[in-house]
Design brief:
The protein is an alpha+beta fold. Helix content is 15%, strand content 36%. The strands form two sheets. Strands 1-7-8-9-2-3 form a six-stranded antiparallel beta sheet. A three-stranded antiparallel beta sheet has the order 4-5-6, with helices on one face. Strand 8 and strand 9 form a beta hairpin. The longest helix is centred in the C-terminal third of the chain and has 13 residues. The protein starts with 6 loop residues before the first strand and ends in a 12-residue tail after the last helix. The C terminus is likely disordered.
């Protein structure tokens, strides 16, 4: 992982997830029990209910129930992967374990979506001030 120079507090998770739900195709990775689950597609919109942030896909797709109270911090990963530029939001718990990662998406030629890279960098540079932003400008 790259040197951590910007970290959002866990209570920014809902704002960030609502923001990236409008970004188009991305890749979500969940590692658990020695397995790696990958989902390529838009990160679903969600809403709070019964103590969870409930992911509601538009049609078939990635869905689930996130306990956002477990997110202690959100790191910005900008480390090359496989020799290519790569960016991800890394959601971590109090014990410093990764809960899940959301990587910026790529087109059919494997190029990052420029609008996502620009928005990622805007949020990273805003840091804690992002909490006051609805994400409309990101």
């Amino acid at each position: 992982m790259s040197e951590i120079d910007t970290v959002l507090p866990g209570d920014a998770a809902q704002t960030l997830l609502k923001t990236i739900a409008d970004w188009g195709d991305m890749m979500t990775i969940i590692q658990h029990g020695g397995s790696v689950f990958e989902f390529k597609g838009p990160f679903p919109k969600g809403e709070v209910g019964h103590g969870f942030y409930n992911l509601i896909p538009a049609g078939a797709g990635f869905q689930g129930h996130l306990d956002l109270s477990k997110v202690h911090e959100i790191r910005f990963q900008d480390t090359p992967r496989g020799g290519r530029e790569s960016y991800a939001f890394v959601f971590c718990n109090q014990q410093d374990d990764v809960i899940f990662k959301v990587f910026l998406g790529r087109d059919r030629e494997g190029q990052l979506f420029a609008n996502q890279v620009e928005a990622f960098k805007k949020i990273k540079s805003a840091g804690i001030e992002f909490l006051g932003n609805t994400g409309a400008d990101a």
